[in-house]
User: Which sequence fits this backbone?
């Protein structure tokens, strides 16, 4: 038996008379993994995967042992020709464990990673490094210098056995590994861990997320070709009951880097191929932010993988899960962040008080200005402990989060003194003091003048502090509702906090307006068409209204059914529209994508056709006096329902299915920020509209002749004139395409709800884009890939709890016309 278990796996599968697909279904291992194992393309055989396959194949003990023998095999003596060479000291690497030293001499070397994947990983590394360096600057981590984040080894009860952490063979004894350090040596500390698995614990606000960013940057700075790329993934929205760790990583890569949707050999996306090739090092941030009832399953899901990873969590929440499951994260070492000391505060806070603010403070103090520093009184009280609130304040300022909040409120504000933090009358408990700092952060940053111009040269706006706090409160409140994302503030989910009834009404009204407007416009054109004598102004108006109402009701009903089935979580598009000949590298979409689109749009088009048939019948009853209860009229309505449903359904299904031929993955910079992803989706929606309108129009015409030709005589005489086909196709093209783009795409719902409805009701400003970007520049929000997040989960929860729907009308002076700073 060689290191490759493929031949034995293939023999066992044939003995069980199973295809690869049947084995995948029985074992829950993907077909691609089975295929890679059998063909010898997989060089990292994970124990869990091989045991699942052995269980599914009912392997005997000896066969199971042989199948899993290539993993964790005890090393043997080196080959004779290499015996004189000293064995190097084993060190941990950031990728998977190296192949065992006991491989026979004739074992083929591991196949190199495909050049396409290597290039994709290198591009991803450059993009992530650029992004997180910018994020560090935005968070002012180095201003004036990073806060001293130190740690010590976590308690032994929260980590695995040292022998497992170092991946030693049975019987070996683990030597001591020094895991102490500070923020400057986090990557070095990680490299000492043989398994490549590390848990970072700490209290709320202790700097875990900032340390994760610094770890990723340090690793990227020393990254060699083909090394895994550290990718920071927020865990707050992860549901391990429905999403595996692999799917979580792939989904997050596709969300933040849509260009990784390109297909590689085998049909999978580049994102999935990078994960499968172990070219991604997950840095999983916020285990404690997972819903309480899902944390046990989350830890089980992490233990089911052998991926090297870094996990951050508050200690209390992680300890609860470890105690409940009686097992920590397997193979994982652990460190726990230490509290800041008074000496740390004395070195940091005085250097955050800018000289300009200090001089202004002296001027306002007048004769009482003594020339002392802003923080001198507070720091002296912390050193001596004489002041009543000194012990309480020292307890609160032991985390970087609270220090940053205190710095923001007092270091650069000449009208406030940090001595008020010692007032135990106003702030009797540590909780009151923390709430005081959280409550003062947003008003303080919005009193501060924003930069006159952003990086792209646009003028910045000033916002009323109270209104800004109200809008931020709504955003934080919406994240706590339903499946709004918990922590990820995505522009395509801003409306998910609205009640389902409101969103169904939105789809109904939008579709009604689109279809009615399309009918009116086509009717006006038909007035100039002399051969269509039955088009009169009154008939056009009534017909447009009827078509709009019935089509809008039909689309609203479809959306309501989708909402009841939880199938309306619209995601931003990861494609752009290009001519197929413009890029020969664009991979064709598989047949199942075409059939899925065809089936969905067939249903939607059929509903629209049925609605149009009833609108036509009501119009004839209104103007020609026919009775809908007449059997002949009713038979004609039923025939029209069938014919129009087939015409609209087939045309919509074929057009949207064939639209895949024009789709290409986004370019590499399309989703570097939330605004770039929004801009790319706006362009895609516009291109979709321009393509769909003529395509649906032509499809209705052609499908009409096809359907009428097939059913002519079977259903009686059917009339389908060219003029009627052109006008009906134009209505379907204009109304159907605009209804789809505005009501059933992420960008369309953003436009109609987040840019119109929510500002109209006072929950967001009219220029939501500018407000979000301004909040990011002021430090209230941060960017994590394609989404925003609040600076800290505690700030988010504070704003959500303090949010109250505005009882007064929206102040147009502060919401629709924010001040523009003058240059």
Assistant:
């Amino acid at each position: 038996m060689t290191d490759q278990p493929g031949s034995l796996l293939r023999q066992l599968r044939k003995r069980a008379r199973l295809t690869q697909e049947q084995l995948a279904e029985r074992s829950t291992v993907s077909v691609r993994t089975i295929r890679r194992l059998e063909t010898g393309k997989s060089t990292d055989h994970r124990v869990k995967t091989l045991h699942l396959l052995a269980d599914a194949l009912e392997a005997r003990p000896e066969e199971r042992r042989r199948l899993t023998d290539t993993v964790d095999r005890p090393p043997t003596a080196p080959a004779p020709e290499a015996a004189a060479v000293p064995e190097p000291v084993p060190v941990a690497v950031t990728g998977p464990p190296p192949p065992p030293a006991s491989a026979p001499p004739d074992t083929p070397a591991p196949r190199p990673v495909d050049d396409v994947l290597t290039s994709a990983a290198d591009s991803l590394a450059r993009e992530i490094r650029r992004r997180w360096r910018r994020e560090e600057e935005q968070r002012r981590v180095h201003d004036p210098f990073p806060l001293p984040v130190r740690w010590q080894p976590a308690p032994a009860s929260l980590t695995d056995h040292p022998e497992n952490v170092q991946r030693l063979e049975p019987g070996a004894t683990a030597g001591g590994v020094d895991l102490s350090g500070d923020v400057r040596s986090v990557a070095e500390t990680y490299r000492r861990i043989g398994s490549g698995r590390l848990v970072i614990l700490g209290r709320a606000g202790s700097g875990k997320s900032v340390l994760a960013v610094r770890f990723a940057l340090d690793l990227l700075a020393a990254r060699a070709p083909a090394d895994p790329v550290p990718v920071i993934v927020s865990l707050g929205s992860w549901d391990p009951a429905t999403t595996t760790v692999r799917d979580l990583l792939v989904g997050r890569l596709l969300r933040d880097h849509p260009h990784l949707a390109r297909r590689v050999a085998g049909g999978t996306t580049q994102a999935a191929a990078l994960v499968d090739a172990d070219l991604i090092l997950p840095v999983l941030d916020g285990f404690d932010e997972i819903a309480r009832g899902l944390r046990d399953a989350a830890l089980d899901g992490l233990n089911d993988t052998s991926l090297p990873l870094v996990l951050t969590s508050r200690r209390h929440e992680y300890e609860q899960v470890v105690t409940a499951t009686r097992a920590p994260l397997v193979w994982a070492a652990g460190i726990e962040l230490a509290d800041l000391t008074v000496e740390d505060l004395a070195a940091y806070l005085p250097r955050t008080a800018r000289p300009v603010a200090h001089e202004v403070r002296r001027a306002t103090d007048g004769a009482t200005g003594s020339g002392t520093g802003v923080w001198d009184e507070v720091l002296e009280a912390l050193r001596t402990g004489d002041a009543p609130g000194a012990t309480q304040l020292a307890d609160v300022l032991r985390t970087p989060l609270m220090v940053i909040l205190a710095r923001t409120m007092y270091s650069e504000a000449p009208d406030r003194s940090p001595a008020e933090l010692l007032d135990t009358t106003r702030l009797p408990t540590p909780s009151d003091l923390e709430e005081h700092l959280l409550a003062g952060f947003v008003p303080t940053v919005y009193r501060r003048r924003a930069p006159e111009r952003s990086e792209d040269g646009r003028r910045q706006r000033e916002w009323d502090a109270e209104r800004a706090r109200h809008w931020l409160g709504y955003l934080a409140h919406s994240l706590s509702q339903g499946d709004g994302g918990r922590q990820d503030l995505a522009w395509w989910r801003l409306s998910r906090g609205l009640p389902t009834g409101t969103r169904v009404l939105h789809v109904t009204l939008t579709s009604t307006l689109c279809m009615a407007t399309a009918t009116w416009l086509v009717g006006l054109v038909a007035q100039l068409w002399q051969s269509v004598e039955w088009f009169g102004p009154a008939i056009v108006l009534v017909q447009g209204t009827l078509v709009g109402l019935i089509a809008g009701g039909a689309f609203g009903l479809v959306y309501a059914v989708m909402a009841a089935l939880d199938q309306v979580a619209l995601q931003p598009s990861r494609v752009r529209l290009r001519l197929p000949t413009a890029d020969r590298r664009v991979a064709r979409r598989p047949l199942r994508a075409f059939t899925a689109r065809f089936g969905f749009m067939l249903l939607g088009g059929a509903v629209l056709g049925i609605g149009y048939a009833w609108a036509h019948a009501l119009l004839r009853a209104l103007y020609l006096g026919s009775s809908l209860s007449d059997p002949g009229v009713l038979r004609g309505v039923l025939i029209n329902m069938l014919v129009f449903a087939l015409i609209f359904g087939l045309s919509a299904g074929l057009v949207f299915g064939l639209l895949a031929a024009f789709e290409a993955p986004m370019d590499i910079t399309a989703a570097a920020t939330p605004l770039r992803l929004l801009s790319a989706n706006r362009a895609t929606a516009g291109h979709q509209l321009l393509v769909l309108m003529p395509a649906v129009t032509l499809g209705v015409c052609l499908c009409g002749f096809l359907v009428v030709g097939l059913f002519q005589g079977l259903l009686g005489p059917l009339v389908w004139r060219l003029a009627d086909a052109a006008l009906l196709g134009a209505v379907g093209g204009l109304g159907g395409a605009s209804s789809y783009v505005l009501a059933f795409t992420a960008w369309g719902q953003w436009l109609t709800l987040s840019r119109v409805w929510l500002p109209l009701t006072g929950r967001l400003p009219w220029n939501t884009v500018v407000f979000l970007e301004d909040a990011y520049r002021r430090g209230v929000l941060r960017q994590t890939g394609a989404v925003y997040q609040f600076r800290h989960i505690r700030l988010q929860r504070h704003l959500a709890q303090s949010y109250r729907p505005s009882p007064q009308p929206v102040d147009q002076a502060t919401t629709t016309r924010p001040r523009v700073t003058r240059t």
